[in-house]
């Protein structure tokens, strides 16, 4: 039977976590919500002015914010499905009976633990005018491009970098899901004469539905919060002509360059609502598919 002393001890152990969450997570969230309704700058917090929903309404009249939303949506639509397909393919490869599985797992996962800044600098070197990519294209007769300086290619080139750096993380998650599938199902399918494609379609893919949902949500959240790659690639400007400007990048500029903290906070909560809406939609779709 638990005594008051036991309860006190338990609460005492939980207290540091509760205080940390309150000070570093919950408190800042509510404070950000508060200043999102103000014209606010940390350079002069005493001059904060209540503006109501003006910051939120201003977002939908701001062409740069709408451009950032468009870029981020295009980036997410291009990266997410490709990430999922490649991650599943790589997981199937390293889960099969091939030699050197450990080596391939390490090679595929290595970009995930590499510094994003280092990867961005490496891709800038590869895709520059006289870089290896253009050198290879010129050898096979394909026109070369100024990849990160061209309006049409800056964002797609960044998407390729993002896929390469993050696909290993989702491969590991898929690999864990594959290893949870009972072998009895595959053995029964082989007895019935199922082909590898049929086993993938009717056993592997349905059994990975919950894993795919988790990866999909994580991938959407990650793509909508992209910042560091864009910052390095565009040298902090979001160029060329805002072609690599994303919502979080614009939020950063509004908060720490223009010092419009209230406007940046409103932007953050709008981004939160967008991600929440997409998550709810995906959850509903996956739930309906499993019925």
UniProtKB/TrEMBL annotation:
Pfam families: BPD_transp_1. PROSITE patterns: ABC_TM1. The keyword Acetylation does not apply. The chain crosses the membrane at residues 12-34, 74-94, 106-127, 153-176, 207-227, 261-281. It is found in: Cell membrane. The keyword Transmembrane helix applies. It is a multi-pass membrane protein. Keywords: Cell membrane, Membrane, Transmembrane, Transmembrane helix, Transport. Residues 69-282 form the ABC transmembrane type-1 domain. Belongs to the binding-protein-dependent transport system permease family. This is Carbohydrate ABC transporter permease.
């Amino acid at each position: 039977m638990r005594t008051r002393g036991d309860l006190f001890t338990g609460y005492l152990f939980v207290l540091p976590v509760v205080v940390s969450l309150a000070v570093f997570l919950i408190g800042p969230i509510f404070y950000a919500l508060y200043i999102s309704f103000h014209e606010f700058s940390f350079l002069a917090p005493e001059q904060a002015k209540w503006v109501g929903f003006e910051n939120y309404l201003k977002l939908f009249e701001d062409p740069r914010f709408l451009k950032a939303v468009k870029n981020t949506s295009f980036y997410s639509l291009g990266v997410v499905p490709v990430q999922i397909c490649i991650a599943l393919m790589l997981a199937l490869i390293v889960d099969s009976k091939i030699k050197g599985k450990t080596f391939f797992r390490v090679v595929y996962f290595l970009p995930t633990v590499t510094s994003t800044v280092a990867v961005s600098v490496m891709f800038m070197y590869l895709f520059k005018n006289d870089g290896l990519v253009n050198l290879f294209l010129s050898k096979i007769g394909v026109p070369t491009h100024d990849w990160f300086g061209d309006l049409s290619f800056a964002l797609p080139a960044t998407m390729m970098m993002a896929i390469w750096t993050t696909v290993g993380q989702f491969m590991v998650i898929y690999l864990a899901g594959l290893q949870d599938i009972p072998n009895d199902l595959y053995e029964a399918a082989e007895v019935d004469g199922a082909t590898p494609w049929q086993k993938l379609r009717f056993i592997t893919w349905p059994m990975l539905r919950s894993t795919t949902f988790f990866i999909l949500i994580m991938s959407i959240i990650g793509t909508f919060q992209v910042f560091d790659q864009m910052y390095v690639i565009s040298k902090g400007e979001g160029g060329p002509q805002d072609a690599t400007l994303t919502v979080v990048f614009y939020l950063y500029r509004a908060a720490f360059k223009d010092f419009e903290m209230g406007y940046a906070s409103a932007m953050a909560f709008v981004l939160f609502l967008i991600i929440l809406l997409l998550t709810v939609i995906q959850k509903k779709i996956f739930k309906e598919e499993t019925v």
